[in-house]
């Protein structure tokens, strides 16, 4: 919310080549090069979410690449962005982080061209990514239509579980599924969804409800979300019951506020999960109802979690189960 207010004060230059600019607050910017080719550009970095440096670098890279996939694009090249305190953090740790990021780029077929480091009191790492897309075939948060179904491609819970982990309270059995989910690429999901979706975004720092609200507002529609249909990582519900809540989750819940109705219909633990900020989360797509079965067959971890309605624009109604 604070960022949106700050950006609202900016005047972005008008250029006919810009297809998606900073004024749209979408997942990435798009600029047309010619009638058949446009560039997709984004940058994303954050502080460590797991203790292992290589895992952190890999996850941060996958998270950054996801913004390209959320626009229906294909990442082409990347530059690493990192901050660290050399007198505090051994260079070997930084090497682990960079190695993890390079491995993620190699897996996705992305050329890592170089990068930039700065001195920082806290470690951070991520990528500035350039991708490509056809200038008439990209996807944005706008475009969801009444009657569409909402599809989520990854389970929720990374924020709650990571907070639980940092507190030293998370059972070890939940660590591997957490890391594996954050390392999972959205490439295949994007390629499947781009053939059907009316609107697409990735679920990251604003949580499921925050990003769903952005899509509903951009599309001029309302959403109905079914909490019990939302897939969860192993341990996510236990982390919610343990109140492993960080500041980002609290801020998300305050931000969605009165634009979300039906809180009384869901348990408190579900409210926490739906507002939980995700790292390297899945894609959220609005798809025609007749396409949903085919999509779920191609995306075995995906789930239909709600529907698009013609209610008040930019609002969400929560229920535990679909309304009959």
From TrEMBL:
Biological process per Gene Ontology, one example term: selenocysteine biosynthetic process
Keywords annotated in UniProt: ATP-binding, Kinase, Nucleotide-binding, Selenium, Transferase
A GO CC term attached to the entry: cytoplasm
Domain PurM-like N-terminal residues, every copy: 26-133
Record-annotated PurM-like C-terminal domain positions: 145-316
Keyword Ribonucleoprotein: no
Enzyme class: transferase
Any one GO MF annotation of this record: selenide, water dikinase activity
Pfam families documented for this protein: AIRS, AIRS_C
EC id: 2.7.9.3
Name of this protein: Selenide, water dikinase SelD
Source organism of the structure: Thermoanaerobaculum aquaticum
Name of the gene this protein is made from: selD
